[in-house]
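lol forgot to send this yesterday, sorry. struct tokens for the thing we talked abt
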């Protein structure tokens, strides 16, 4: 597929597979089962479950702290700023580097303070950064993934430059100089045991959500020959016919043993790995990807596919740092391969995104296109096993060169999202919503913790209008206001975006540490002064619908809205039928469509939503799910009369495209 063709179809046909399903029956407001949401049709652009994170790198002061020598207060202010940025971009997790080079961002009993805090390895920063970082992340209900580098000792080769207390100085035989850096030797069993103990110190002492490793196991090949561990192989390599198999086994043991230690100590703490994006090429191994790049299996001895298949890790976030169509490592091919690799396992798949490339000087021309990064996430929707993304790194998220990050936020992070549910654990009991009161700052909602289960956080939902609650109203993030970390037996949330003239229903759910969600609470209705604005525009509404003569009229199917509907053959032309409406005020509106379904209709009918931030395309499978309102999504619109929703003929799939009716509701 050509790149230009991909640009178009990524916004249309790739999303169609996610639009199937039938709405569940309505339930009373006090019994809204989350499980029933599985049958709901949801908006793929507002997924309810999605990990959204960014790496905050400390080595070489890449992100935080911005430089050494900052006061504790200045360091803390900078860190809060990164968390506020994550919340602004509607992320729900941060991956923070807290052991960049056999050192520590906490008062470790095993390794010295990191030099990237004070400028001097072993220098006390005057506070406990780890305790501070975890507490601040959780106060914003962001997951805190503690990022460790298992084997790197220093970015130089001089042992005497290390702190006197450094384990590598006390055990010089553990260290290997290679390619201008110092590493612990992964082949020494005592080293493997020690690095696990050093990392488990943080796991045991702090309330982290995950242990995270990047792609540094054995070092990448350098110009000075192979990694000098032949003597170690001679000592410990019995039973292995090649040194490469022995090296892979050393890394496998690190992963397997660390996984067992974490699960024994804190089963809710995940082990995640973000490896190099290519395991092996298909030209080398038929199980590999259709790529021709460096192979992590062979170059750094990371058998990542095995870790997934064995279930030794909880998530994998390959660094797929190439553009769509890259000749050696095509992003589209790699997300396909990784998706197939995790299929049939319990391992969650996230994607490491090269946000640092977007708009950066010296990068390929593809990365100068503001759509490159957002196209990655659009492509991800074609693979349901992809459960989110991590952006490298924080400073590039903040820089937002060429508006690439803003595009991602607009196109994919429109609403908050819950983190994907992990293996194990159980949903807590539903909370009791005690009050919802409108005040000068918005609507304040209060609740009590449920009587059973372990509650770690809450999700707050707002539905327009009053009446009963359909479980499908909670199926995607269209109605999700935000999340709150649990503290004590009660909780509170203020909805500052509530319109004074609108009536709303509020509900709350509880989640355990692994994000299993309870049934919804009872609903509380807050009335508005002028009622909720909602308008239905039919294809027969005077002044509300326009279409060329190429669009036919039919009343054949009884599941239509009103007396008839319009239809047209698909064709690569700009000939949309438009629904227009007068919106009373700028704000957030839910957009729904009605159509009569037929097996012969189009499987990827493009719907154009003309938002205040640009036109968004959503594909709808009109072969099924008709005869009811289907949510396209929640969007920001300006006030006034304008074309709001168009139904386009421009699709490569076969079957009539249908334009029948739309409903627009202010939230």
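and heres what i got for the seq, position by position
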């Amino acid at each position: 597929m050509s790149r230009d063709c991909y640009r178009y179809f990524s916004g249309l046909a790739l999303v169609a597979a996610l639009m199937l399903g039938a709405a569940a029956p309505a339930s009373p407001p006090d019994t809204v089962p989350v499980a029933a949401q599985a049958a709901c049709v949801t908006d793929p652009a507002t997924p309810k479950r999605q990990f959204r994170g960014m790496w905050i790198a400390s080595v070489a002061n890449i992100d935080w702290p911005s430089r050494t020598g900052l006061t504790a207060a200045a360091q803390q202010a900078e860190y809060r700023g990164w968390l506020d940025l994550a919340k602004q971009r509607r992320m729900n997790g941060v991956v923070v580097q807290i052991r960049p080079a056999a050192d520590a961002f906490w008062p470790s009993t095993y390794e010295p303070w990191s030099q990237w805090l004070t400028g001097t390895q072993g220098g006390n920063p005057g506070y406990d950064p780890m305790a501070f970082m975890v507490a601040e992340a959780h106060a914003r209900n962001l997951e805190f993934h503690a990022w460790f580098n298992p084997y790197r000792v220093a970015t130089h080769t001089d042992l005497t430059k290390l702190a006197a207390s450094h384990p590598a100085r006390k055990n010089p035989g553990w260290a290997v100089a290679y390619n201008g850096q110092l590493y612990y030797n992964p082949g020494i069993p005592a080293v493997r045991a020690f690095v696990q103990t050093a990392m488990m110190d943080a796991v045991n002492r702090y309330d982290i959500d995950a242990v995270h490793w990047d792609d540094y196991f054995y070092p990448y090949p350098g110009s000075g020959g192979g990694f000098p561990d032949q003597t170690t192989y001679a000592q410990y390599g019995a039973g292995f016919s090649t040194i490469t198999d022995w090296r892979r086994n050393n890394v496998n043991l690190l992963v397997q043993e660390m996984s067992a230690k974490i699960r024994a100590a804190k089963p809710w703490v995940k082990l995640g790995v973000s490896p190099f994006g290519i395991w092996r090429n298909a030209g080398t191994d038929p199980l590999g990807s259709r790529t021709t790049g460096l192979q992590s299996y062979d170059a750094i001895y990371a058998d990542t596919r095995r870790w997934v298949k064995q279930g030794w890790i909880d998530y994998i976030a390959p660094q797929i740092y190439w553009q769509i169509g890259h000749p050696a490592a095509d992003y589209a091919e790699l997300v396909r391969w990784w998706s197939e690799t995790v299929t049939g396992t319990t391992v969650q798949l996230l994607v490491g995104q090269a946000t640092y490339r977007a708009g950066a000087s010296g990068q390929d021309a593809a990365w100068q296109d503001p759509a490159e990064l957002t196209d990655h996430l659009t492509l991800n929707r074609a693979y349901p096993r992809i459960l989110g993304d991590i952006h490298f790194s924080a400073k590039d998220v903040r820089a937002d060169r060429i508006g690439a990050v803003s595009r991602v936020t607009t196109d994919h992070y429109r609403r908050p999202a819950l983190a994907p549910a992990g293996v194990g654990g159980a949903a807590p009991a539903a909370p009791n919503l005690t009050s919802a009161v409108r005040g000068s700052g918005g609507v304040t909602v209060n609740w009590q913790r449920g009587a059973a289960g372990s509650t770690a956080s809450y999700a707050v939902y707002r539905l327009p209008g009053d009446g009963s609650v359909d479980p499908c109203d909670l199926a995607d993030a269209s109605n999700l206001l935000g999340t709150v970390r649990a503290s004590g037996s009660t909780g509170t949330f203020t909805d500052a975006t509530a319109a004074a003239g609108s009536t709303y229903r509020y509900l709350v759910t509880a989640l355990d540490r692994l994000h299993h969600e309870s049934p919804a609470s009872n609903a509380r209705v807050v009335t508005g002064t002028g009622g909720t604005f909602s308008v239905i525009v039919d294809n027969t509404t005077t002044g509300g619908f326009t279409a060329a003569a190429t669009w036919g009229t039919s009343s054949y199917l009884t599941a239509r809205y009103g007396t008839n509907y319009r239809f047209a053959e698909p064709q690569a032309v700009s000939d949309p039928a438009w629904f227009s409406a007068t919106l009373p005020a700028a704000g957030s509106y839910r957009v729904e469509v009605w159509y009569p379904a037929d097996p012969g209709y189009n499987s990827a009918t493009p719907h154009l939503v003309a938002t205040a931030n640009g036109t968004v395309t959503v594909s709808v499978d009109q072969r099924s799910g008709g005869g009811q309102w289907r949510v396209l999504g929640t969007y920001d619109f300006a006030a006034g009369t304008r074309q709001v929703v168009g139904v386009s003929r421009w699709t490569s799939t076969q079957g009539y495209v249908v334009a029948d009716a739309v409903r627009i509701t202010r939230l």
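The two ends are 40 Å apart (CA to CA). anyway ping me if u want another try
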